[in-house]
Write a structure and sequence with these properties.
By secondary structure, this protein is mostly helical. The chain has five helices and two strands. The longest helix is centred in the middle third of the chain and has 54 residues.
């Protein structure tokens, strides 16, 4: 029995010593910062904002046109026959339904473009991070949003941002 206790303690201390000697280098990166501040990210953001502004202008013009047509139809209610009035209202409802469908399609398309473009940045970023971690013997690279507390020396965001900016300057939206 005594022999088993000594063997257990010996193995336990041996494993602690080996664990203490094993040094794993961990670093973290702020992906949100890179997406917002890289040249590719800024280019992407500008293109998406331009598309969004154009969509908003188009939406506003179509809404104004539909409201004007609705007002005109209501003003003509007493002049037109009931059948013609219903025909005009039905056409207006169809146009409003088509407008809403088009609006949803454009919003979904913009969201899809945003995700695809961010995916392109990540695809270009992955090999950069892999090469950097291999060169600097970093075992694990984590996203900053998953870190509660960490040494600022472990933050490699700025270094990776520089490497990414050197690799890609702009991402074109399809």
């Amino acid at each position: 029995m005594q022999y088993k206790k000594i063997l257990f303690l010996f193995i336990f201390f041996l494993s602690i010593i080996n664990y203490a000697k094993a040094e794993t280098i961990v670093a973290f990166i702020d992906m949100q910062y890179i997406m917002e501040n890289s040249l590719a990210g800024k280019s992407l953001k500008k293109q998406l904002e331009d598309i969004h502004k154009k969509n908003l202008t188009d939406f506003k013009n179509k809404e104004d046109s539909l409201k004007k047509r609705e007002k005109e139809a209501i003003d003509k209610k007493n002049v037109l026959s009931e059948e013609e009035f219903q025909k005009e209202i039905t056409q207006l409802r169809t146009d409003v339904k088509n407008y809403n469908a088009e609006r949803n399609d454009r919003i979904n398309s913009l969201t899809k473009k945003r995700l695809e473009s961010m995916e392109k940045i990540v695809k270009n970023l992955s090999p950069i991070i892999a090469d950097f971690s291999k060169e600097n013997n970093i075992a694990i690279v984590m996203d900053k949003k998953n870190i509660i507390v960490g040494k600022t020396e472990l933050n490699i965001t700025k270094k990776i941002l520089t490497l990414l900016d050197n690799k890609i300057k702009k991402i074109k939206i399809n």
